[in-house]
Description:
Blueprint: H1 2-36, H2 45-70
Amino acid sequence: xxxxxxxxxxxxxxxxxxxxxxxxxxxxxxxxxxxxxxxxxxxxxxxxxxxxxxxxxxxxxxxxxxxxxxxxx
Length: 73
């Protein structure tokens, strides 16, 4: 695969990390800012916490996938 294959893996890992950052940012900042305007009927703090945990887990999963891609696995 050589240098070209290594560069493609690096670019793919960078793209996955960028997506992971976006998922975490949108999930955490968006949820917390929306909740800071006041709770809406039917939306609880537990639901916001669930969104935060899920987006952090999704971001961590994408980051681990990118690391595995860089390691050639």
